[in-house]
Amino acid sequence: MKLRNLIVETLKEEVVPAMGCTEPVAVALACAKAKELMAFNYIESAKVFVSPNIYKNGLSVGIPNTKEVGLHIAAALGFIGGESEKDLRVLEGINERQVQLAKELLHSGRVSLDIKDTEDKIYVEVNLVTDKGNSNVIISGKHNRFVYIERLGEVLLDLRKGDKKSNIGKNILYGLKVREIISEIEKIPHKDIAFMLDGVVMNEAIAEVGLKEKMGMGVGFSLKKGMEQGFLCEDLMTSSMMLTAAASDARMSGINLSVMSSNGSGNNGLTAILPLVAYKNKFNVTDEKLAKAVAISHIMNSYIKHYIGRLSALCACGVAAGTGSGVAIAWLMGASEEQIDGVIKNTLANTSGMICDGAKEGCALKLSTSASVAVQSAVLAINGSIVPARNGIVAETAEDTIMNLGVLSSEGMNIADVVILNTMKKMQKEFETLPLHENSKSYLKKQGIIA
């Protein structure tokens, strides 16, 4: 396959709309699929197992169309109203009655959720038992990648033993030099890459919502207030922080809006795109130039996450998406190949210690930091200020620096991930159970949710 086609194919696969944090969405998607496999009168039990990283990232995040947080309600909503054909938008269209039904299903004790002892970063398993038989599904590798589907004892799909074919081409892409990939993106006709602008529109829209009213932590909203009060300047860096944080504020609060994700993460998508939106709002950028810059940002995010993992103890918004947007901004500024390599070194020297302690309202702080570092790294690099080799994990080349980051993530941060998860679990309140009201119990029976 030609490199150009591989890049476009990768972008189409990795840059997709998502509603809500992708970890609880993956749980809801698996539950929806398990439900749809069966024609039944009622659920007897549903056991959901997730990887430690899925558990960590879904523990405290808001769920769209509800005022709830966490994986339990996401699982129940998947059973009640999720539609798997909507993919990462599986919770789109959930209504208040379905939310109430989902709560009642949880309180009935028929749904359980536990951590799976697995090395897979992304793993969701659902074992559904109904009055008409069982179904089992597993998502692994990607948030929407089904690797196992079983209905009534018949195995319909089993990719658990490997099916690496879809990754062969990408391994070739991620083995190239960054400058080779960017050079190829520059040659792609606008019509083949114009779809990148869909994410600009989508993510800018949610950022504007987060700026109009205080949502979540209100980081973006408060930064805007700071500019109005004269404490902050409305420059490229502050605008990047404000937009990116505001979008995260809205998303992490569970707003009923989709975002354009990047490499399986909505927050990565916000960080990869919105600093570029700040740039195009301040400077004159053609649609073609902007589309290619966004493509560069997404590809860099995907490139780095290939080495650190789709989920990691490191904050990918800081080390991957932030690097991507920094590289793209420098490219828009007219940076040379050496300067673009310098952006990568500068960003990773700055953010490599940023941990991921789950998806939550506080992510807006990390996204604002990532956005500011992206701009800072670009400005420093184009003015000749680049972290020299052998400073910490920074190597002679950008690619070797990324590989060093990968080693840090895969070998150095495993114990950190365990400690982070254990700390979060200690602070997590036990799920509260309430008695079922008779009218709710009757409705659940009528809907075939309980016996």
TrEMBL record:
HAMAP family in the cross-refs: UPF0597
GO molecular function: L-cysteine desulfhydrase activity
Serine dehydratase-like alpha subunit domain: residues covered: 86-422
PANTHER family: UPF0597 PROTEIN YHAM
Protein name (database record): UPF0597 protein Ctaglu_35370
Source organism superkingdom: Bacteria
Native species: Clostridium tagluense
GO BP of this protein: L-cysteine catabolic process to pyruvate
